[in-house]
Design brief:
heterotrimer; A mainly alpha (about 260); B alpha/beta (about 270); C mainly alpha (about 260); A: about 260 residues; MetI-like fold; C: about 260 residues; mainly alpha; globular
């Protein structure tokens, strides 16, 4: 492939969005000229973005959202991992927990926002609790499935070798589920971020979601769009990073599962 | 019924003709200029080692791939695109059947594509399913069928097209020996009943001799200026053939020895 | 994952009952403040009252709120599914279109649907229509992306079979492409339903639209814990029922997958 074609290939993903943004730029400029306070052209949003980056508000809010999401993920996915392994290894325990899990799992995490508000007020803990709840269930379900699908031959080998339950869990089960664990983790990261932003939009006066809400309420459409775009970029970047991590891990572990 | 002298028939009115067809794919010459004809009603088997281009040749006959040089002609007309008159049986039958349709539904697809009105479809489907022995399994989904039955379902769909030419790409390669033998005989019977012209690719030399009126042997990487088509032999063994008797027939054994030696030679 | 046999069900029920008993003890004995944790009986009472289960004695508000939320969720989901499948098919059938458009779709994928609410508010103001728009728009993407993937992943052998049968393009899309993409589309629609519920609730919360979202927010602000819990229970039920119904429908539609 000639270098010209290669450059073309690299630029192609940008063609469609740039065309759309260009059209929107023209449209929004006209709307702004007519006095609209709802739409702002991408160029104004970019300026607002730079402004927020320079005065620190961008980093503060982003750090809050990312930090809270990470902590919530640690708590929720961590618990989900432990319980998932336990239930995966013990079909009996899984059967006993079945009803309770099926009753609590379908509760939408946003439904717990007012409860968390009541318990923790506004701030880090409230958002963390909701993220933990939201990330707990997918991790539990996926890890449980992964453990149950560990090659039964390996478990037989562990019995023949006389491994203790603890040894079995750490030397056989855990390494065997690592690839699928990373898939679940990738999903968990995505959920954590989405839920964190959603909580900020709905109630919590901190973080990126809140910053975007405030911008809208202050009739600052440029800043609002800047936040919307930034949230998109952060989400995309985090997911892309997780995908690379997952790919790297899959190659290291022989990409079996 | 004894095999007619094929040479005369071929010279008279070739049903299918390859005129110096060469095919390049991905920078490599998969098939060097190949020239041969097939008469109407002939059963021609194509054999050769991996990479000799036999599947590519078949796909060119079907119009699925265009020749880089030369022409494929069917009934005098140049083949440029697939046509319903030439039915293609794929080796990976599992992937060639619609998993969400029953056997009946899969056969129906051929008729729907041909624009056959709904009322006429049912009897034609029943007829063709009876021919391949799947009448009792018409309402089953592919996932519920064995490999042999799935392949028969694909063959049934091809027969529903009422094709003049049937192209088969190692159709029995993925099946176990017993199923393969049963299907070989079923195919021979069907072909005889409907007077089909068949182009049959296989890596199994015995299968080629057993089924064919003629066997075409291709060679891989013939070298510059040399054709892919290395050998063409007529199979003058009487029909109908059967698994035990025919395979002990002296002519069968002779051809078998000849073909094996030839293929071995090609491996030097 | 199915509970096996009567013993399994009994054990499962026992564990659940134990958790409820724990709830009962913790709330009644005051281990956890009743401001956050109402007693089970108070929750049930609020439910009964709100759903008008006591011979017309109750105010029936919760019933109305539930209808509003479910209505928003379903309407948005139906619109989203239709738009998602149509657009997704249009994009998915053509490798050329996919190549140009896919990267943009991948950028939108991780965006929280609720993040569109401020934009929608500034355009449409605080109204039921605004919430419905965001529900539909937000819930469209899982279906759209799943449809694009489903169409892109059509078994290439089937495409060849269609060529051999000289099938016209439209027939191919309708008879081969769509059924082939159906498992992906149905999975996308299930995810879409989850998002519809979430955005409906959040939308009600911030746009003060009548529904369970607003109801539980107001209940929390007024420290009426039993009403809050009643609302949470109902939202959980909605989530459960919608998912279960879709799973049943999916199983019926994908009967052909089971040997």
């Amino acid at each position: 492939m000639t270098s010209g074609a290669a450059i073309g290939r690299a630029l192609r993903p940008w063609a469609f969005p740039l065309v759309l943004l260009g059209l929107y730029e023209v449209y929004a400029r006209r709307a702004a000229a007519l006095g609209s306070d709802a739409l702002a052209p991408p160029s104004a949003a970019l300026k607002a973005f730079v402004g927020a980056a320079l005065d620190g508000s961008l980093w503060e809010a982003t750090a809050f959202t990312l930090g809270t999401a990470a902590l919530g993920l640690l708590a929720g996915a961590g618990l989900g991992l432990l319980l998932g392994i336990a239930l995966g290894l013990s079909p009996r325990a899984a059967r006993m927990g079945f009803l309770s899990i099926e009753v609590f799992r379908p509760v939408p995490s946003v439904a717990l926002i007012p409860l968390a508000m009541l318990m923790f007020g506004f701030g880090l803990r409230m958002e963390l609790a909701i993220v933990a709840f939201a990330t707990f269930w997918p991790m539990l379900v996926l890890v449980q499935a992964a453990v149950r699908q560990v090659e039964p031959r390996l478990l037989e080998v562990s019995r023949m070798l006389g491994l203790s339950a603890r040894e079995r869990a750490f030397k056989i089960v855990l390494p065997a589920i690592v690839p699928r664990l990373f898939v679940a983790l990738r999903l968990g990261v995505a959920v954590a971020l989405v839920v964190a932003v959603t909580v900020e939009i709905a109630a919590n006066p901190h973080g990126m979601g809140y910053a975007m809400m405030i911008a809208q309420q202050s009739f600052d459409p440029a800043l609002m769009l800047a936040w919307l775009g930034w949230i998109g970029v952060v989400g995309y970047a985090v997911n892309a990073a997780m995908q690379r991590l997952q790919g790297w891990m899959a190659r290291r572990m022989g990409a079996a599962a | 019924m004894v095999a007619e002298p094929m040479a005369a028939a071929a010279a008279a009115a070739p049903f299918l003709g390859f005129d110096d067809v060469a095919i390049r794919l991905g920078g490599r010459e998969i098939l060097s200029p190949t020239r041969f004809t097939v008469a109407r009603g002939e059963f021609v088997c194509i054999v050769g080692p991996s990479g000799c281009g036999k599947t590519t040749l078949l796909r060119a006959a079907a119009g699925l791939v265009a020749p880089s040089a030369g022409e494929v002609r069917r009934e005098g007309r140049v083949v440029r695109a697939p046509s319903r008159e030439a039915a293609f049986v794929f080796q990976d039958y599992g992937r060639a059947l619609l998993p969400w349709r029953t056997v009946e539904g899969n056969v129906s697809l051929a008729l729907e594509a041909a624009g056959v009105p709904a009322a006429e479809r049912a009897p034609r489907i029943a007829e063709v399913l009876a021919k391949v022995g799947l009448a009792a399994h018409a309402q089953k989904f592919p996932v519920q069928l064995s490999g042999g039955m799935q392949q028969r379902a694909q063959i049934a769909r091809c027969l529903a097209q009422r094709p003049a030419l049937m192209m088969m790409d190692e159709p029995f390669g993925a099946l176990d020996a017993l199923t393969r033998q049963g299907l070989q005989d079923e195919l021979a019977r069907l072909v005889r009943e409907d007077g089909l012209t068949v182009l049959f690719v296989t890596h199994d030399l015995e299968e080629a001799i057993y089924l064919g009126d003629r066997v075409i042997a291709l060679q891989a990487d013939p070298g510059p200026g040399r054709p892919s088509l290395a050998r063409m032999i007529d199979v003058r063994i009487p029909r109908p053939r059967e698994q035990l008797g025919t395979k002990e027939h002296p002519e069968f054994l002779r051809l078998r020895r000849e073909l094996f030696a030839f293929i071995e030679q090609g491996h030097d | 994952m199915k509970a096996q046999g009567a013993a399994g069900w009994f054990g499962s029920l026992a564990v659940f009952a134990a958790l409820v008993a724990l709830w009962w003890a913790a709330s009644n004995a005051g281990w956890v403040s009743r401001v956050f944790l109402p007693t089970p009986q108070a929750t049930l009472a609020s439910l009964a009252e709100g759903l008008n289960l006591r011979d017309g004695q109750g105010n029936g508000e919760l019933l109305g709120f539930t209808q509003a939320t479910v209505g928003r969720m379903l309407q948005g989901w139906l619109l989203a599914s239709l738009a998602g499948v149509l657009l997704g098919a249009a994009i998915g059938v053509s490798p050329a279109v996919r190549a140009w458009v896919q990267p943009t779709l991948e950028f939108i994928r991780p965006l929280p649907a609720s993040a569109l609410l401020p934009l929608a508010i500034s355009i449409f103001g605080l109204s039921a229509g605004m919430v419905l728009f965001v529900v539909a728009f937000g819930a469209m993407w899982p279906v759209l992306l799943a449809t694009v993937h489903g169409f892109a992943a059509v078994e290439p052998r089937l495409a060849e079979v269609a060529r051999c049968l000289q099938m016209p393009r439209a027939a191919f899309v309708w008879k081969v492409g769509l059924p082939s993409a159906m498992p992906d589309i149905l999975a996308g629609m299930r995810l879409s339903m989850t998002i519809s519920l979430i955005v409906a609730v959040v939308g009600e919360m911030i746009a003060s639209q009548s529904g369970l979202g607003q109801a539980i927010l107001l209940a929390a602000r007024a420290f009426r814990a039993s009403e809050l819990f009643a609302g949470i229970v109902l939202l959980g039920l909605i989530g459960f029922a919608s998912n279960a119904l879709l799973a049943v429908a999916e199983k019926k539609l994908l009967r052909w997958q089971q040997p």
